[in-house]
Design brief:
Length: about 230
């Protein structure tokens, strides 16, 4: 390869790398479940077709902390099993389709949960609906700080829904979650967790080929001027 050709190739590669860009938008949510929050994002401005979307990624992060779960065995026999306690979240939209290339939801439900096991003695005499956490037939579980996240890419066939000069909304729903396997005879009570998190949209794009060609020609013109 001649020095001149090598220089041309270097310019073309440099223009291509420099032209790849991203726009990142992150919106926050928080509250005490159960709740629904509406987050607003800007659509991608393709500048009249001068920019071409390469990908759209969507990511969801859910954090939970605190809260209490009380289990109280009112049955005549000991009871044991496992528990989950925390929050679960999901996203949806009536403005745009949140689907991947398989036309499945772009992100799965996120689950930020404190988990463990329990072993409770038979009821020692407390009555129904008193939610007594005292041993041996009761226990209290403090919620710990937990996080979960998921991400994915929007199907390219749906890109047109995300292009424009307006905005679109994404709804985030977060629900309190408690489960102890449905063991018979156990009554339970909950103090809700506190939940927070983010939804992030990333547009990856490049100039359309004609624009990229003009940039390349401009780079070559600079080389020619330098050689004179």
């Amino acid at each position: 390869m001649t020095k001149g050709l090598a220089a041309i190739v270097a310019v073309l590669i440099g223009v291509s790398i420099a032209s790849a860009s991203s726009i990142v938008q992150t919106e926050n949510f928080n509250g005490t479940p159960n709740f629904l929050r509406t987050l607003t994002f800007d659509k991608f401005d393709d500048q009249g077709g001068a920019l071409t979307l390469q990908s759209i990624s969507v990511s969801v992060l859910l954090n939970v902390q605190g809260g209490l779960l009380i289990l109280d065995n009112d049955g005549e026999n000991p009871a044991s099993g496992s528990y989950e306690f925390g929050g679960k979240g999901d996203i949806s939209s009536t403005d745009v389709s949140l689907l991947n290339s398989l036309f499945q939801p772009v992100t799965a439900e996120v689950e930020a949960l404190t988990t463990g096991s329990f072993s409770l003695g038979a009821n020692v005499g407390d009555g129904a609906n008193d939610f007594d956490p005292s041993a041996p037939d009761g226990m209290q579980i403090s919620g710990t700080t937990q996080s979960d996240s998921d991400s994915g890419f929007i199907a390219s066939a749906l890109f047109s829904q995300y292009i424009g000069l307006s905005t679109f909304d994404i709804d985030v729903s977060v629900d309190q979650w408690s489960d102890f396997g449905g063991v018979s005879g156990i009554e339970w009570a909950v103090t809700p967790v506190t939940a927070s998190g983010t939804v992030t949209i990333v547009y990856n794009y490049v100039p359309e080929p004609a624009t990229l060609g003009l940039l390349s020609i401009g780079g070559l013109a600079v080389l020619r001027r330098r050689r004179k």
